[in-house]
Amino acid sequence: MAYSPYFVRNLEYVAARWGAVDMVDLAPPLLEKYIAQGLHGAGEELRLSSHFQPIFSLAHRRPVGYEGLIRATDSGGRGVSPHELFSKAPHTEARIALDRQCRALHVRNFQKFGNAGSWLFLNVDPQVATEGPRFGSFFAEMLKSNDFPAHRVAVELIETPFEDEGRLTSAVEYYRKLGCLVVIDDFGAGYSNFDRIWRLRPDIVKIDREMTRRVTVEPLARRMFTGIVSVLHEAGALVCVEGIETEAEALCAIDANADLIQGDYFAPGSSGLLPENARSEVFARLITGHRADFAEFQKRQHMRLLPHLAAIKNAVQDLSLGAKFQPAVQGLLKLPSAQRCYLIGSDGLQIGANVEAESKVHSQDQRFEVVQPTEGTDWQTKPYFRRAIEAPGKVQITRPYLSVLGPKLCVTLSFAFEASDGTQQVLCVDLDFASLAGEDIAFGVSSLHA
After folding, report:
1. Which of 100, 208, 293, 424 is 20 to 30 A away from residue 42, measured at CA?
2. Tens digit of each residue's pLDDT (9 = 90 or more) over 124-165
3. Domain presence at residue 239
4. Residue 345's domain spans which residues?
Protein backbone atom coordinates (compact mmCIF):
# COMPACT_ATOMS: atom_id res chain seq x y z
CA MET A 1 0.00 0.00 0.00
CA ALA A 2 1.44 3.37 -0.99
CA TYR A 3 1.20 6.22 1.52
CA SER A 4 0.43 9.74 0.37
CA PRO A 5 3.38 12.16 0.27
CA TYR A 6 1.64 14.28 2.93
CA PHE A 7 1.53 11.36 5.33
CA VAL A 8 5.21 10.59 4.71
CA ARG A 9 6.34 14.22 4.94
CA ASN A 10 4.57 14.87 8.22
CA LEU A 11 5.86 11.87 10.11
CA GLU A 12 8.54 10.42 7.84
CA TYR A 13 7.23 6.90 8.14
CA VAL A 14 8.76 4.06 6.21
CA ALA A 15 6.20 1.28 6.26
CA ALA A 16 4.73 -1.59 4.38
CA ARG A 17 1.12 -2.68 4.48
CA TRP A 18 0.12 -3.33 8.12
CA GLY A 19 3.79 -3.34 9.05
CA ALA A 20 5.57 -1.65 11.93
CA VAL A 21 5.86 2.11 11.74
CA ASP A 22 8.83 4.07 13.03
CA MET A 23 8.34 6.81 15.60
CA VAL A 24 7.62 10.34 14.46
CA ASP A 25 10.61 12.62 14.05
CA LEU A 26 10.33 14.87 17.10
CA ALA A 27 12.37 17.74 15.68
CA PRO A 28 10.61 21.03 16.62
CA PRO A 29 10.19 22.35 13.05
CA LEU A 30 8.33 19.21 12.01
CA LEU A 31 5.96 19.28 14.96
CA GLU A 32 4.87 22.85 14.29
CA LYS A 33 4.12 22.28 10.61
CA TYR A 34 1.40 20.18 9.08
CA ILE A 35 1.11 19.57 5.35
CA ALA A 36 -2.57 19.03 4.59
CA GLN A 37 -3.82 17.74 1.29
CA GLY A 38 -5.61 20.66 -0.37
CA LEU A 39 -7.75 20.96 -3.46
CA HIS A 40 -6.56 19.17 -6.59
CA GLY A 41 -3.85 17.42 -4.56
CA ALA A 42 -1.95 20.61 -3.75
CA GLY A 43 -0.17 20.72 -0.41
CA GLU A 44 -1.45 23.21 2.17
CA GLU A 45 0.97 24.09 4.96
CA LEU A 46 -0.56 24.84 8.35
CA ARG A 47 1.19 26.07 11.46
CA LEU A 48 0.32 24.25 14.69
CA SER A 49 0.59 25.51 18.25
CA SER A 50 -0.67 24.52 21.72
CA HIS A 51 -3.09 26.20 24.06
CA PHE A 52 -3.66 24.85 27.55
CA GLN A 53 -6.90 25.24 29.48
CA PRO A 54 -6.60 24.78 33.25
CA ILE A 55 -8.63 22.18 35.12
CA PHE A 56 -9.20 23.19 38.74
CA SER A 57 -9.68 21.10 41.84
CA LEU A 58 -12.63 22.43 43.84
CA ALA A 59 -11.09 21.17 47.07
CA HIS A 60 -7.69 22.78 46.40
CA ARG A 61 -9.00 25.85 44.54
CA ARG A 62 -6.09 25.74 42.09
CA PRO A 63 -5.20 24.18 38.74
CA VAL A 64 -4.29 20.50 38.99
CA GLY A 65 -4.26 19.80 35.27
CA TYR A 66 -4.30 21.35 31.81
CA GLU A 67 -6.02 20.18 28.65
CA GLY A 68 -3.93 20.46 25.51
CA LEU A 69 -5.89 22.23 22.76
CA ILE A 70 -4.54 22.32 19.21
CA ARG A 71 -4.50 25.64 17.37
CA ALA A 72 -3.82 25.91 13.64
CA THR A 73 -3.40 28.77 11.19
CA ASP A 74 -2.96 28.75 7.43
CA SER A 75 -0.37 30.67 5.43
CA GLY A 76 -2.62 33.72 5.39
CA GLY A 77 -2.98 33.78 9.18
CA ARG A 78 -6.55 32.46 9.18
CA GLY A 79 -7.43 30.31 12.15
CA VAL A 80 -8.35 26.73 11.32
CA SER A 81 -10.67 25.02 13.80
CA PRO A 82 -9.71 21.60 15.22
CA HIS A 83 -12.69 20.07 13.42
CA GLU A 84 -11.55 21.51 10.09
CA LEU A 85 -7.97 20.48 10.79
CA PHE A 86 -8.84 16.84 11.41
CA SER A 87 -11.25 16.77 8.48
CA LYS A 88 -8.18 17.21 6.32
CA ALA A 89 -6.93 13.84 7.58
CA PRO A 90 -10.01 11.61 7.30
CA HIS A 91 -8.24 8.29 6.64
CA THR A 92 -6.90 5.98 9.30
CA GLU A 93 -3.14 6.38 8.77
CA ALA A 94 -3.30 10.11 8.11
CA ARG A 95 -5.53 10.66 11.12
CA ILE A 96 -3.22 8.66 13.37
CA ALA A 97 -0.28 10.68 12.10
CA LEU A 98 -1.97 14.03 12.81
CA ASP A 99 -3.23 12.85 16.20
CA ARG A 100 0.30 11.78 17.16
CA GLN A 101 1.77 15.04 15.97
CA CYS A 102 -0.67 17.05 18.10
CA ARG A 103 0.01 14.99 21.21
CA ALA A 104 3.77 15.21 20.74
CA LEU A 105 3.50 18.98 20.24
CA HIS A 106 1.45 19.39 23.43
CA VAL A 107 3.86 17.30 25.51
CA ARG A 108 6.89 19.16 24.23
CA ASN A 109 5.30 22.59 24.77
CA PHE A 110 3.91 21.73 28.19
CA GLN A 111 7.25 20.37 29.35
CA LYS A 112 8.87 23.72 28.55
CA PHE A 113 6.95 25.36 31.39
CA GLY A 114 8.71 23.20 33.96
CA ASN A 115 5.45 22.43 35.77
CA ALA A 116 6.39 19.24 37.62
CA GLY A 117 3.07 18.46 39.25
CA SER A 118 0.03 19.04 37.01
CA TRP A 119 -1.68 16.49 34.81
CA LEU A 120 -1.64 16.99 31.06
CA PHE A 121 -4.93 16.00 29.40
CA LEU A 122 -4.42 14.76 25.83
CA ASN A 123 -7.42 14.18 23.55
CA VAL A 124 -7.46 10.92 21.60
CA ASP A 125 -10.08 9.84 19.08
CA PRO A 126 -11.30 6.31 20.00
CA GLN A 127 -10.62 5.24 16.41
CA VAL A 128 -7.03 6.42 16.75
CA ALA A 129 -6.73 4.80 20.17
CA THR A 130 -7.64 1.40 18.75
CA GLU A 131 -5.58 1.65 15.57
CA GLY A 132 -2.52 3.37 17.03
CA PRO A 133 -0.94 0.51 19.04
CA ARG A 134 -0.59 -1.70 15.96
CA PHE A 135 1.72 0.93 14.46
CA GLY A 136 4.27 0.57 17.25
CA SER A 137 5.03 2.03 20.66
CA PHE A 138 4.95 5.68 19.58
CA PHE A 139 3.24 7.05 22.67
CA ALA A 140 5.55 5.47 25.25
CA GLU A 141 8.64 6.43 23.27
CA MET A 142 7.39 9.97 22.73
CA LEU A 143 6.85 10.48 26.46
CA LYS A 144 10.26 9.02 27.21
CA SER A 145 12.02 11.23 24.68
CA ASN A 146 10.41 14.28 26.32
CA ASP A 147 11.23 13.01 29.81
CA PHE A 148 7.53 13.27 30.65
CA PRO A 149 6.22 10.65 33.14
CA ALA A 150 3.17 8.66 32.05
CA HIS A 151 1.46 9.06 35.44
CA ARG A 152 1.02 12.77 34.70
CA VAL A 153 -0.79 12.08 31.42
CA ALA A 154 -4.58 11.87 31.29
CA VAL A 155 -5.63 10.21 28.03
CA GLU A 156 -9.00 11.76 27.18
CA LEU A 157 -11.22 9.72 24.87
CA ILE A 158 -13.32 12.23 22.98
CA GLU A 159 -17.02 11.47 22.43
CA THR A 160 -17.55 9.79 19.08
CA PRO A 161 -19.53 6.80 17.82
CA PHE A 162 -17.47 3.62 17.79
CA GLU A 163 -18.87 0.23 16.90
CA ASP A 164 -16.24 -2.13 18.36
CA GLU A 165 -16.25 -1.28 22.07
CA GLY A 166 -14.25 -4.45 22.77
CA ARG A 167 -11.27 -3.11 20.83
CA LEU A 168 -11.64 0.22 22.60
CA THR A 169 -11.41 -1.57 25.95
CA SER A 170 -8.15 -3.23 24.84
CA ALA A 171 -6.77 0.12 23.71
CA VAL A 172 -7.63 1.72 27.04
CA GLU A 173 -5.77 -1.05 28.84
CA TYR A 174 -2.70 -0.19 26.75
CA TYR A 175 -2.69 3.36 28.12
CA ARG A 176 -3.52 2.17 31.62
CA LYS A 177 -0.56 -0.23 31.61
CA LEU A 178 1.71 2.64 30.59
CA GLY A 179 0.61 4.32 33.82
CA CYS A 180 -1.67 7.00 32.31
CA LEU A 181 -4.98 8.17 33.70
CA VAL A 182 -8.01 7.29 31.56
CA VAL A 183 -10.62 10.00 30.99
CA ILE A 184 -14.08 9.73 29.40
CA ASP A 185 -15.07 13.01 27.77
CA ASP A 186 -18.56 14.44 27.16
CA PHE A 187 -20.37 12.01 29.45
CA GLY A 188 -24.12 12.14 28.76
CA ALA A 189 -23.72 12.89 25.06
CA GLY A 190 -23.93 10.31 22.30
CA TYR A 191 -21.90 7.20 23.07
CA SER A 192 -20.38 8.37 26.35
CA ASN A 193 -22.84 6.75 28.75
CA PHE A 194 -22.91 4.46 31.77
CA ASP A 195 -22.27 1.39 29.62
CA ARG A 196 -18.96 2.88 28.51
CA ILE A 197 -18.16 3.84 32.12
CA TRP A 198 -18.69 0.28 33.38
CA ARG A 199 -16.65 -1.21 30.55
CA LEU A 200 -13.68 1.17 30.53
CA ARG A 201 -13.48 1.97 34.28
CA PRO A 202 -12.13 5.52 33.77
CA ASP A 203 -10.23 7.43 36.42
CA ILE A 204 -11.94 10.71 35.50
CA VAL A 205 -15.28 11.43 33.81
CA LYS A 206 -16.02 14.78 32.21
CA ILE A 207 -19.66 15.88 32.22
CA ASP A 208 -20.99 17.02 28.84
CA ARG A 209 -21.28 20.78 28.36
CA GLU A 210 -24.95 20.57 27.40
CA MET A 211 -25.80 18.77 30.64
CA THR A 212 -23.93 21.47 32.56
CA ARG A 213 -26.05 24.14 30.90
CA ARG A 214 -29.35 22.35 31.42
CA VAL A 215 -28.93 21.95 35.18
CA THR A 216 -29.19 25.71 35.55
CA VAL A 217 -32.51 26.00 33.71
CA GLU A 218 -34.36 22.72 34.31
CA PRO A 219 -35.32 21.63 37.85
CA LEU A 220 -35.48 17.96 36.80
CA ALA A 221 -31.94 18.09 35.38
CA ARG A 222 -30.75 19.82 38.57
CA ARG A 223 -32.25 17.12 40.76
CA MET A 224 -30.74 14.36 38.60
CA PHE A 225 -27.32 15.98 38.40
CA THR A 226 -26.35 15.31 42.01
CA GLY A 227 -27.37 11.66 41.61
CA ILE A 228 -25.37 11.27 38.39
CA VAL A 229 -22.26 12.66 40.04
CA SER A 230 -22.82 10.32 42.99
CA VAL A 231 -23.13 7.26 40.72
CA LEU A 232 -19.94 8.19 38.88
CA HIS A 233 -18.18 8.44 42.24
CA GLU A 234 -19.52 5.00 43.12
CA ALA A 235 -17.99 3.75 39.85
CA GLY A 236 -14.59 4.89 41.12
CA ALA A 237 -14.17 8.01 38.98
CA LEU A 238 -13.40 11.60 39.77
CA VAL A 239 -15.95 13.93 38.16
CA CYS A 240 -14.99 16.99 36.14
CA VAL A 241 -17.71 19.46 35.11
CA GLU A 242 -16.45 21.08 31.92
CA GLY A 243 -17.60 23.90 29.68
CA ILE A 244 -18.55 26.17 32.58
CA GLU A 245 -19.32 29.66 31.30
CA THR A 246 -21.46 31.20 34.06
CA GLU A 247 -21.47 31.54 37.82
CA ALA A 248 -24.75 29.60 37.99
CA GLU A 249 -23.11 26.61 36.28
CA ALA A 250 -20.16 26.81 38.66
CA LEU A 251 -22.50 26.82 41.67
CA CYS A 252 -24.32 23.76 40.32
CA ALA A 253 -21.01 21.90 40.07
CA ILE A 254 -20.16 22.85 43.66
CA ASP A 255 -23.60 21.81 44.89
CA ALA A 256 -23.31 18.43 43.15
CA ASN A 257 -19.94 17.71 44.82
CA ALA A 258 -17.91 17.59 41.62
CA ASP A 259 -14.17 17.09 42.05
CA LEU A 260 -12.82 19.06 39.11
CA ILE A 261 -14.06 22.06 37.18
CA GLN A 262 -13.15 23.53 33.78
CA GLY A 263 -14.42 26.30 31.56
CA ASP A 264 -13.98 29.81 30.24
CA TYR A 265 -15.68 31.20 33.38
CA PHE A 266 -12.49 30.32 35.26
CA ALA A 267 -9.93 30.58 32.45
CA PRO A 268 -9.94 30.04 28.68
CA GLY A 269 -7.22 28.13 26.89
CA SER A 270 -3.96 30.04 26.63
CA SER A 271 -0.44 29.58 25.33
CA GLY A 272 0.83 29.85 28.92
CA LEU A 273 -0.01 28.44 32.36
CA LEU A 274 -1.73 30.17 35.26
CA PRO A 275 -0.14 30.92 38.64
CA GLU A 276 -1.55 28.53 41.25
CA ASN A 277 -3.44 31.30 43.07
CA ALA A 278 -4.66 33.07 39.93
CA ARG A 279 -8.35 32.31 40.60
CA SER A 280 -8.31 32.14 44.41
CA GLU A 281 -10.58 35.19 44.72
CA VAL A 282 -13.12 33.65 42.33
CA PHE A 283 -13.23 30.43 44.32
CA ALA A 284 -13.44 32.28 47.63
CA ARG A 285 -16.44 34.27 46.34
CA LEU A 286 -18.15 31.17 44.96
CA ILE A 287 -17.66 29.07 48.08
CA THR A 288 -18.71 31.89 50.39
CA GLY A 289 -21.78 32.62 48.27
CA HIS A 290 -22.73 28.97 48.05
CA ARG A 291 -22.34 28.52 51.81
CA ALA A 292 -24.56 31.54 52.46
CA ASP A 293 -27.19 30.40 49.93
CA PHE A 294 -27.15 26.90 51.38
CA ALA A 295 -27.55 28.15 54.95
CA GLU A 296 -30.47 30.35 53.90
CA PHE A 297 -32.05 27.46 52.02
CA GLN A 298 -31.76 25.19 55.06
CA LYS A 299 -33.31 27.89 57.23
CA ARG A 300 -36.29 28.24 54.86
CA GLN A 301 -36.61 24.47 54.64
CA HIS A 302 -36.56 24.10 58.42
CA MET A 303 -39.25 26.76 58.80
CA ARG A 304 -41.47 24.92 56.30
CA LEU A 305 -40.98 21.63 58.12
CA LEU A 306 -41.56 22.96 61.66
CA PRO A 307 -45.37 22.53 61.58
CA HIS A 308 -45.01 18.98 60.21
CA LEU A 309 -42.41 18.07 62.83
CA ALA A 310 -44.64 19.31 65.63
CA ALA A 311 -47.72 17.58 64.18
CA ILE A 312 -46.03 14.19 63.77
CA LYS A 313 -44.88 14.31 67.40
CA ASN A 314 -48.43 15.13 68.54
CA ALA A 315 -49.79 12.24 66.47
CA VAL A 316 -47.23 9.85 67.96
CA GLN A 317 -48.15 10.97 71.46
CA ASP A 318 -51.84 10.25 70.81
CA LEU A 319 -51.08 6.86 69.25
CA SER A 320 -48.86 5.83 72.15
CA LEU A 321 -51.79 6.57 74.49
CA GLY A 322 -54.10 4.30 72.50
CA ALA A 323 -55.82 6.70 70.08
CA LYS A 324 -57.19 5.30 66.81
CA PHE A 325 -54.94 5.84 63.80
CA GLN A 326 -57.16 7.94 61.54
CA PRO A 327 -58.22 10.53 64.17
CA ALA A 328 -54.65 10.74 65.48
CA VAL A 329 -53.19 11.82 62.12
CA GLN A 330 -55.92 14.22 60.95
CA GLY A 331 -54.07 17.29 62.23
CA LEU A 332 -50.96 16.17 60.36
CA LEU A 333 -52.82 15.58 57.10
CA LYS A 334 -54.41 19.05 57.13
CA LEU A 335 -51.00 20.69 56.79
CA PRO A 336 -49.78 21.90 53.39
CA SER A 337 -47.76 19.34 51.42
CA ALA A 338 -49.03 16.36 53.47
CA GLN A 339 -50.13 13.50 51.21
CA ARG A 340 -50.75 10.39 53.33
CA CYS A 341 -49.92 8.68 56.61
CA TYR A 342 -49.28 4.98 57.31
CA LEU A 343 -48.10 2.78 60.15
CA ILE A 344 -45.35 0.15 59.93
CA GLY A 345 -44.71 -2.60 62.45
CA SER A 346 -41.24 -3.47 63.81
CA ASP A 347 -41.10 -6.31 61.24
CA GLY A 348 -41.35 -3.77 58.41
CA LEU A 349 -44.91 -4.75 57.40
CA GLN A 350 -47.60 -2.09 57.02
CA ILE A 351 -50.35 -2.06 59.65
CA GLY A 352 -53.71 -1.32 58.03
CA ALA A 353 -54.28 0.92 55.01
CA ASN A 354 -53.02 4.40 54.19
CA VAL A 355 -54.91 7.41 55.45
CA GLU A 356 -54.94 9.96 52.65
CA ALA A 357 -55.16 13.73 52.98
CA GLU A 358 -58.67 14.87 52.11
CA SER A 359 -57.37 16.96 49.22
CA LYS A 360 -55.78 13.84 47.68
CA VAL A 361 -58.61 11.34 48.03
CA HIS A 362 -60.17 12.25 44.67
CA SER A 363 -56.92 12.90 42.81
CA GLN A 364 -55.37 9.42 42.81
CA ASP A 365 -53.62 8.41 39.61
CA GLN A 366 -55.46 5.27 38.51
CA ARG A 367 -52.49 4.14 36.43
CA PHE A 368 -50.65 3.33 39.66
CA GLU A 369 -53.55 1.73 41.49
CA VAL A 370 -51.99 -1.74 41.16
CA VAL A 371 -49.02 -0.68 43.34
CA GLN A 372 -51.03 1.08 46.05
CA PRO A 373 -49.78 0.02 49.49
CA THR A 374 -52.12 -2.15 51.54
CA GLU A 375 -51.93 -3.94 54.87
CA GLY A 376 -48.90 -6.22 54.87
CA THR A 377 -46.89 -4.22 52.31
CA ASP A 378 -43.22 -4.75 53.16
CA TRP A 379 -41.23 -1.55 53.86
CA GLN A 380 -38.29 -3.08 55.74
CA THR A 381 -35.76 -2.21 53.02
CA LYS A 382 -36.71 1.47 52.97
CA PRO A 383 -34.15 3.84 54.52
CA TYR A 384 -36.82 5.87 56.32
CA PHE A 385 -38.02 2.72 58.12
CA ARG A 386 -34.54 1.45 59.03
CA ARG A 387 -33.33 4.82 60.27
CA ALA A 388 -36.43 5.32 62.40
CA ILE A 389 -36.04 1.88 64.01
CA GLU A 390 -32.36 2.59 64.73
CA ALA A 391 -33.15 5.96 66.37
CA PRO A 392 -36.54 5.75 68.12
CA GLY A 393 -37.99 9.00 69.38
CA LYS A 394 -36.40 11.11 66.63
CA VAL A 395 -37.95 12.34 63.39
CA GLN A 396 -36.14 11.09 60.29
CA ILE A 397 -36.27 13.00 56.98
CA THR A 398 -35.50 11.51 53.57
CA ARG A 399 -34.11 13.06 50.44
CA PRO A 400 -36.71 13.53 47.68
CA TYR A 401 -37.49 10.26 45.91
CA LEU A 402 -40.03 8.97 43.42
CA SER A 403 -43.05 7.62 45.27
CA VAL A 404 -44.44 4.24 44.27
CA LEU A 405 -47.88 5.90 44.36
CA GLY A 406 -47.26 8.03 41.30
CA PRO A 407 -44.68 9.88 39.23
CA LYS A 408 -44.03 12.59 41.81
CA LEU A 409 -41.15 13.30 44.14
CA CYS A 410 -41.96 13.09 47.80
CA VAL A 411 -40.19 13.47 51.13
CA THR A 412 -41.03 11.08 53.96
CA LEU A 413 -40.95 11.88 57.67
CA SER A 414 -40.76 8.81 59.91
CA PHE A 415 -40.89 8.38 63.71
CA ALA A 416 -40.44 5.15 65.70
CA PHE A 417 -42.36 4.95 68.98
CA GLU A 418 -43.71 2.47 71.52
CA ALA A 419 -47.40 1.80 70.92
CA SER A 420 -49.96 1.36 73.69
CA ASP A 421 -49.72 -2.44 73.36
CA GLY A 422 -45.95 -2.34 73.99
CA THR A 423 -44.89 -3.02 70.39
CA GLN A 424 -42.61 -0.77 68.38
CA GLN A 425 -44.22 0.96 65.44
CA VAL A 426 -43.17 3.60 62.88
CA LEU A 427 -45.46 6.45 61.84
CA CYS A 428 -44.72 7.77 58.33
CA VAL A 429 -46.05 10.79 56.49
CA ASP A 430 -45.33 11.53 52.81
CA LEU A 431 -44.96 15.15 51.80
CA ASP A 432 -45.18 16.48 48.24
CA PHE A 433 -41.68 17.73 47.46
CA ALA A 434 -42.71 20.35 44.87
CA SER A 435 -45.18 21.91 47.30
CA LEU A 436 -42.72 21.74 50.19
CA ALA A 437 -39.80 23.23 48.25
CA GLY A 438 -41.72 25.98 46.48
CA GLU A 439 -39.34 28.25 44.59
CA ASP A 440 -36.39 26.27 45.99
CA ILE A 441 -37.32 23.13 44.07
CA ALA A 442 -34.24 23.42 41.85
CA PHE A 443 -31.85 24.02 44.74
CA GLY A 444 -29.62 21.47 46.50
CA VAL A 445 -31.70 18.32 46.78
CA SER A 446 -28.71 16.80 48.57
CA SER A 447 -29.36 19.08 51.55
CA LEU A 448 -32.13 16.79 52.78
CA HIS A 449 -31.00 13.83 54.87
CA ALA A 450 -30.45 10.53 53.07
Report:
1. 100
2. 888 788 876 665 578 999 999 999 999 999 999 876 666 677
3. yes
4. 305-447
